[in-house]
Amino acid sequence: MTDPQPPETVATYLRLRGLKPSSKNWKRKKRLVVDDDNAPFTKGRDPGTLGDVLDKLTKDSGWEKTLAAEDLVRQWAELAGGDTAKHSEPVSLERGVLTVKCDSTAWAKNLQFMRAVIMTEITNRYPDAGVANLRFIGPDVPSWKWGPRVVPGRGPRDTYG
Fold first, then answer.
1. What are residue 137's DSSP bridge partners?
2. How many Cβ atoms sit within 10 Å of the Cβ of residue 80?
3. Could you report the per-residue pLDDT of 42-57, keeping only the tens digit for each?
């Protein structure tokens, strides 16, 4: 086996510099660089699942509380039960108070008795929603105060007379 000669470009360079090109042990040295970020089959190289990507997006964007509150409203029937959900619905969540509107005052009163059970379920299922208290209200009475010109007072008096 012959001694490897330096490549022609290296030999020319050495001659121009006034150096004698030698043929002893001329080999190209391979760089041994370990690049863990781009090595195949290493941790972190496989694509993540869509759920992991969406979890990271919601966490980075600060949407956890909003999405938990939306889930609570959307799954109210599962949380409170089918019969209860027919007669009640969550209407707002402000400052940690979840307001639930009921069909009648009787339903509102019964749900007040069940407040601890419902609150425990909400805390267990939706801890990120930020619900600290529950408020149950009955149906609204008609209001006579509407329109651009509202007159203070009791409203029309001879309507039901």
1. 101
2. 22
3. 776 777 788 888 888 8
pTM more than 0.85: no
DSSP secondary structure string for all residues of 74-129: HTHHHHH-HHHHHHEEEEEEETTEEEEEESSHHHHHHHHHTHHHHHHHHHHH-GGG
The β-bridge partners of 94 are 97
Q: In Å, how far from its chain's centre is CA 54?
A: 7
> Which residue has 């619905």 as its token pair?
89
What pLDDT, in 10s, does the model give residues 14-34? Answer: 777 777 766 655 555 666 666
Instruction: Single out the residue of 63, 65, 85, 60 nearest to residue 75, CA to CA.
Output: 85
Gap between the Cα atoms of 136 and 138, Å rounded: 7
